[in-house]
Amino acid sequence: MIDLMPRPENAPILVVDDDPKIVALVRAYLERERFRVVTAGDGRAALRAIEEHAPRLVVLDLMLPEVDGLAVIRRTRAMGDIPILVLSARGSTGDRIQGLSEGADDYLPKPFSPAELVARVRTILRRTERDALDGGADVRYRTGDLEVDLARHAVRIAGREVVLSVLELRLLVALLAADGRILSRDQLLDAIHGVGEADVTDRAIDVYVKRLREKLGDDPAAPRFVATVRGAGYRAAGPVERLGSA
Q: Which of 35-49, 116-130, 148-162 has the least mean pLDDT?
């Protein structure tokens, strides 16, 4: 089951960084915008804070003591779909793709503008809370033995539930909704992140598709669900039915 329900508005934002100056700066800017903030200085403390506070969003450094940031992302994703904004000095394209492919919702490299960080936090919260409201749509998609139920945020293959991240679910729904039309990498990035909302290259889509295929058990050499169109993008591999929810 995909947990897209918004957290209560009084739930805090969790800021995780082992640099107290960064924590103080981010906290000051978020509190100025009337967000409630809790903090952690290492990965282990971050995981405890996530369990205790169920934050609306996590601002997360990657280079953390105790448990590194990528491990925090993976373990957070196992708990649910709390939005994660990575704030890291590791700012190469490869680092960004890795962070996003592990399940982060956005990636802001250091040094950073605190005003931009606040803007990105607001954008992520608007998007995830909008998704929660839109998620009640009375629609299901079916292709072969794969079924996606938007009302229940459920994905099943031959009756077996498959757990996808929010980004993976958006990617899959975009492909199914296109009903066989080819979608370019740019179009898929817009569907996942929103136009201009993520500072990553379109090749990040290849990473997302790889992870989605792994979770669906889909062989790219003989695809059942996601087909590659060389030089153009991706499309649903087979006929897609759009159904009313059961």
A: 116-130
Q: Are residues 157 and 234 in the same domain?
A: yes
Domain closes at, from 132, 154, 179: 132
CATH of residue 65: 3.40.50.2300
Looking at residue 129, what is its pLDDT?
A: 60
Measured at the CA of 85, the angle between CA 80 and CA 87, to 5 degrees, comes to: 140
What's the pLDDT tens digit per position in 69-115? 999 998 888 777 788 999 988 867 777 888 887 888 888 999 999 99
The total number of structural domains in the chain stands at 2
Examine residue 2 and state whether it is found in any structural domain, yes or no: no
Domain finish residue from 132, 166, 185: 132
DSSP letters, 71-89, are: HHHHHHHHH----EEEEES
Straight-line distance from the first to the last Cα atom of the chain, in angstroms, rounded to the nearest whole number: 16
Closest CA to 62 of 30, 109, 116, 111: 109
Can you give the pTM of this predicted structure?
0.58
Amino acid letter for position 118 = V
